Amino acid sequence: MSDLVVWASGTGGTYAVTTDGGDTWRSGVVPGADSLEFRDVEAVSERIAYLLAAGPGDRSRIYKTEDAGRSWSLQFTGRDTSAFYDCFAFWDERRGFTMSDAVAGRFPVVRTSDGRTWSDIGERLPPAQAGEGAFAASGTCTAAVGDRHGWIATGAAPRARVLATGDGGDTWQAHAVPVVQGSGTSGGITIEFRDTLNGLLGGGDIAAPDSPAANVARSRDGGRTWLLATPTPFPGAIYGLAYVPGPESLMAVATGPRGAAWTADEAASWVLLEGVGDYWAVAFASPRAGWLVGTEGRILKIAFRGTEARRREAPIGDYIGRSLARR
Question: Structural domains in the chain?
Answer without folding.
Answer: 6-326 (2.130.10.10)
